């Protein structure tokens, strides 16, 4: 089965955007690891505290079949982290699945992997502008699959987001 890396903000990731898709993917038999900017404990916006398996700079995109950026109010910081952007670029170069939910697509856009792709994001003006500035085609829908890219608009779409990622990983 597939190996998936989910990237969360050190502070302010959206709890259910990590836990719901991870549960869906693990039920399908996939292996899920979690990274953040550092190995220090990461805190969700709803109070969850997790211990990341690795820091983003330690992750190798060749080892994973999918890289998923978890959203939440802290996730715009991921779009400013060069280690996260390198992971996304590396995964795209290998043709691996890339997922991003809520404000997570901002990081994928800044990494340059959403150019000419139909995508969605949490309906925030700044987030939509970041996507458009980086060549993405923003569409206001809950979940969008374009090639090997899956994007979702927020926590209410977390289950469907996980299911779409699982579908892509079965190929």
Whole-number radius of gyration?
14 Å
Low-confidence stretches: none
Tally of distinct domains: 1
Query: How much of the residues is beta strand, in percent?
Result: 15-25%
* Average predicted confidence as pLDDT: 97
The biggest sheet, with number of strands, parallel, antiparallel or mixed sense and barrel status, is:
7 strands, mixed
Spell out the helices and strands N to C. EEHEEEEEHEHEHEEEH
Please summarize what this structure is.
By secondary structure, the protein is an alpha/beta fold. The chain is built from five helices and twelve strands.
Question: Can you walk me through this structure?
Answer:
With 171 residues, this protein is α/β, with parallel strands linked by helices. It has one domain (3-169): Rossmann fold. It has helices at residues 15-27, 82-93, 105-110, 125-133, 158-169; strands spanning 3-7, 11-13, 31-36, 42-44, 49-50, 54-55, 66-69, 97-101, 118-119, 137-138, 143-146, 149-152. α1 (15-27) runs parallel beside α5 (158-169). The longest helix has 13 residues, at 15-27. The mean pLDDT is 97.
Any descriptors?
three-stranded mixed sheet; Rossmann fold; seven-stranded mixed sheet; alpha/beta; 5 helices; 171 residues; 12 strands
Mind sketching the topology for me?
Layout lengths: L2 E5 L3 E3 L1 H13 L3 E6 L5 E3 L4 E2 L3 E2 L10 E4 L12 H12 L3 E5 L3 H6 L7 E2 L5 H9 L3 E2 L4 E4 L2 E4 L5 H12 L2
Parallel strand pairs: 1-3, 1-7, 2-4, 3-6, 7-8, 8-12, 9-10
Antiparallel strand pairs: 4-5, 11-12
Helix pairs in contact: 1-5
């Amino acid at each position: 089965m597939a190996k998936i890396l989910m990237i969360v903000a050190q502070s302010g990731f959206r709890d259910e955007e990590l836990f719901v898709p991870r549960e869906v993917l693990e039920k399908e038999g996939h292996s899920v690891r979690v990274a953040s900017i550092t190995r220090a404990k990461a805190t969700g916006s709803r109070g969850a505290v997790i211990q990341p398996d690795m820091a983003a700079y330690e992750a190798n995109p060749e080892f994973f079949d999918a890289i998923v950026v978890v959203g939440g109010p802290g996730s715009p910081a991921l779009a400013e982290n060069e280690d996260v952007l390198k992971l996304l670029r590396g995964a795209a170069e290998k043709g691996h699945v890339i997922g991003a939910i809520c404000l997570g697509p901002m990081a994928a856009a800044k990494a340059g992997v959403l150019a000419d792709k139909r995508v969605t994001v949490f309906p925030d003006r700044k987030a939509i502008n970041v996507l458009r500035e980086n060549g993405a085609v923003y569409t206001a829908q809950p979940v969008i699959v374009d090639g090997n890219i899956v994007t979702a608009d927020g926590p209410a779409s977390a289950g469907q987001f996980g299911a779409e990622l699982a579908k892509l990983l079965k190929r």
